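Researcher: For the record, we're logging two predictions in this thread. I'll number them. Prediction 1 follows.
Model: Prediction 1, sequence and structure:
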Amino acid sequence: MPRLDTSVRSAAIVVAVIVGLTGCAKMDAALGQQWFVVQFAPNTTVAAARQVTAACAHLPNLHPEPVVPTTADRGVVDSVRFNSTRASDADMARLELCLQRFPKLVQGFSLSQPGD
């Protein structure tokens, strides 16, 4: 009977280690992400923000998050993020050029990483 208890304990330790390592890998992946944040003009509608995002979504290595209201006023967006973790400087420069086609909607942009 003691042998069975040892086997159960060993299995529980192995499972705990695997779960712990998986959690660490996900945390490392999240911390290693980089985001290109686009700031919109006040009162930019979701539809207008989606138009801008769709126009620039074709660029390589830059993936926009879904456009959803980000203010207390439903239907209004103040910013949207593009995952730029794998983007080169040239990719981000292309995104900036694309966004400049919408001067009345796009107020600016910045680069951020988790923990900033």
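Researcher: Logged. Prediction 2.
Model: Prediction 2, sequence and structure:
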Amino acid sequence: MGDIVFTSEISYPQLQVYRNSNFSQIVIHRAYTMATVPLETIQGDDPFYKCNPPNILGEAPIYRASDSTLHWVECLGDSTIPPTLWIMKVDPETGDAVGEARRIELEDSVTVMFFRKDIPGSYICAYYQGVAFMDEETGKLEVVKEIIPTDQRDELRYNDGSVDAKGRFWLAEIDKRAMAFGPNQLPESYGKPKGRLFRYDPDGSLHLMETGLICGNGLAWSPDNKTCEFY
């Protein structure tokens, strides 16, 4: 069965990927979440905020305490709704939305973003093909690392990512063709999935950390920063 990971009162199997303390080895095993403390229950009521137009797929919510704003992206877009950065004022006392969110149209799909240290109004983000800096006022993307070539956009795209305690940006790809088979339906004849996990360091260097991903998602670290986990 592998290790036991205590995270919630719901028990279910899921694939987990761990990297050891020096990030030199990967261990993949099946883990089961088990109860430790009761889950907090929040009574559902009216929506916190109604997006207008509605998001197709809202992603990457991050909160900035200095001005009490919530930032997220409509990452997919279609022929009528472009990929969009949303910024909403939040009442710091009540947590309620204040007024209408500001919308900034983006040049390309962005799926995850984080504020940059000591550079106000700028995010580091994973856009469709790699790493970019995104401007908060204009939505302009400054591409710093194009990892997926343009002629491979039908095969790969970026999905989720995270920043570790050393300020390094980790970003994971989707193998779009493998993903299209559905959960746990990839035939053996497909071979090794093509999705990859990269790490972009503050010095501008890029490091390939893992291969064989269908859809890299949910990157996180243990409290002691010695274990990286993703799905």
